[in-house]
Amino acid sequence: MSGLSAVPATVVRGGDKRYPALSRGFNQRWVAAPEYVRLVRTPEEARAALAEAVGEEPADPARTRITVRSGGHCYEDFVCGEDVRVILDVSPMCGVSYDESMKAYCVEAGATNWHVYGRLYPVSGKALPGGACFSVGLGGHVPAGGFGLLSRQHGLTVDYLYAVEVAVADEDGNVRLVVARRDDRDSELCGLWWAHTGGGGGNFGLVTRFWFRGLPQPPGQVLLAALAWDWSDFTKDEFAALVTAFGEYFRDHQNPSTAAGKLFAMLKLNHVSNGQIGLLAQVDADDPDGPRAMAEFIAAVDGRIGPAATKMRSVMGEHFVHLDVPRAMPWLTAARALGSGGGNRCGKYKSAYLRKPFTVEQIDAMWAYLGNERYTDYANRQALIQVDSYGGAVNRPPHPTAARQRDSILKVQYQVYWAEQDGGEDAHIAWIRDAYKATFAATGGVPVAGGETTDGCYIGYPDADLGDRRWNESGQSWETLYYKDAYAKLQEVKRRWDPCNVFRHAQSIRP
Ligand SMILES: Cc1cc2nc3c(=O)[nH]c(=O)nc-3n(C[C@H](O)[C@H](O)[C@H](O)COP(=O)(O)OP(=O)(O)OC[C@H]3O[C@@H](n4cnc5c(N)ncnc54)[C@H](O)[C@@H]3O)c2cc1C
Fold first, then answer.
1. Within 6 Å (CB) of ligand 1, which residues are found?
2. Domains, the chain, ranges and CATH?
3. Does residue 445 have a pLDDT over 60?
C-alpha cells in the first residue's frame, strides 16, 4: 500500500487549489461542482467514505449524486455531472499483486492500464488484454468489458475476472465490503460478480479490488505497422474498396489460434480536412506466421486500392505512429507507442458493433459525411470514424459474462475532438450525430442490437444520445443497445445490491 497511508484521508473542497483539477474529467467537457472530492487509499477507507457520504444530507437539493472515479475517462458526465454532490476517487488505490489465498492476480480499482502493463508484465510475464490508453482506469474499464489490441488473441478483460470486491449500501444506508466470486455458491454474490463482467461502471457499488485468474502472456515481440493514404487520391469507389477490404479481411480471419486471427488493426477514417486516412496494425511476432500474416493483411487492404500508401503525417484520434515499414519491437514498447490517449481536450463519441462488413449504404453515408458531400465546409482534423478489428477470442468466451456482443467482427468508434478554448462544440457535436445517424439510417439512426449487420453499442463508450428520440428512432432503448438480453438480470442484481439507487447516472441500470 502507498507510503501515504499514515496521512489522514484527503478531502478536497472548493477553495482548495486542487479542487478545479479534481472536479473535472479527462474529457474537458465534464466539470462538476461537488461539495467535496475524497481520495481513498484502502478498501476500508473506501467503505467508510461511502458510508459517510450515504449518511449525509445534501446541502443543495440539485446536487445529490455520489459518484466514483478511477481513471476519470468516462465519455459522458456519469462522474462529473452538474448534479454531483460527492466524488469518491479511488485513484490512490492502484496496487498490483499476486494473492496466494485467491490464487489470482489482485489489481486495485484505481490502477490504470499502465499500472497493469508496467507492473504486472515485468514481474509475471502476463497481461490483461485491455485497452491501449495508459491512463484509463480499471474501475471503469473492466466492468464495461474492456478490450484492446490483444483481445482478438486473448479475449476481453472480463473473461479473466475471477472475483471483485465491492462496497455496497443496503436499504438502511449500511455500507459493507463484499467479495463476489465467479464460483460463489451464493447465487446473489455470483450475480454481483457477473454484473461486473460487462454491466458497466457506476451501477452496483464502489469497486475496490479485482482478482484475475488464468491471465494470458502477451507476445515477447510484436510487429507494428502504420500507414496512411492521402485523401486527395481517393474516389468514392476507392474509398468503398478500402472499407470493404478491411471488413472482409476480419470477416474471413476469425480463428485466434492463427497469426491472422491474432492480428489487430484500426482503420482511421478521418474527416477529409485531416488530409489522410490511416491504418495501424499489430501482430504477434513470436508466431512464426506473424510476418506473413501482416504482409498478407496489408496486401489485402492496400493492394485492393489505387492510392499509394505513405506515412502518417499527423495525430489520428488518439494515435500517431510514424513508421516506414512494419517494425518488430517488444510488446511493452509497442504498448507505449500506442498508449498516449490524446491529452487534454473535449470529445464526443459513439460506437457500433458490426457482425458483417459495412453495407454499400453505410459506406456511402460515411463517404458523404467525412466531408466529401456533406460537411464540406466543416474543418476538423480530429473528426473520425475509427474501425477496430474485433472477434477472434472475444467470440469464444470461456464462461458466460454480461458482455453480450460475442459474434461481431468489427467495433466502430465515431470520435470528434476539439480544444476547450476554441469552442465550436455545437458544430462538432452536429457532425458526429449526423454522420452516425446517416450511417445507420436503415435501422433508425443506430446500429440495432441483434440486427442483420449490427449488434448494438459498447457501454465503455457511452453515448447519452441513445436515450434521445431525435437521435435514436429505432424503437430499441439504450438498455437493449448496450446490454441486449442481459438487461433484466442486471436489473435484478441492481435491486439486490443497490436497492436505494445510490449509484446512478444518465444511463445507469434502473432498479
Ligand atoms: C483515451 C481513451 C481511450 C480508450 N481506449 C479504450 C480501449 O482501448 N478499450 C476499451 O475497452 N475502452 C477504452 N476506452 C473507454 C474506457 O474503457 C472507459 O471510458 C472506462 O469506463 C474508463 O474508466 P475510468 O475508470 O478511466 O473512468 P471513470 O470516468 O473514472 O469511470 C467510468 C465509469 O465507471 C465508474 N467507476 C469508475 N471507478 C469505479 C469504481 N471503483 N467502482 C465503481 N464504479 C466505478 C464511474 O462511476 C463511471 O460511471 C478509452 C477511453 C479513453 C478516454
1. 26, 67-75, 78-79, 90, 109, 131-133, 136-137, 139-141, 144, 146-148, 201-202, 206-207, 318, 341-342, 460, 505
2. 3-89 (3.30.465.10), 96-217+488-497 (3.30.465.10), 221-485 (3.40.462.20)
3. yes
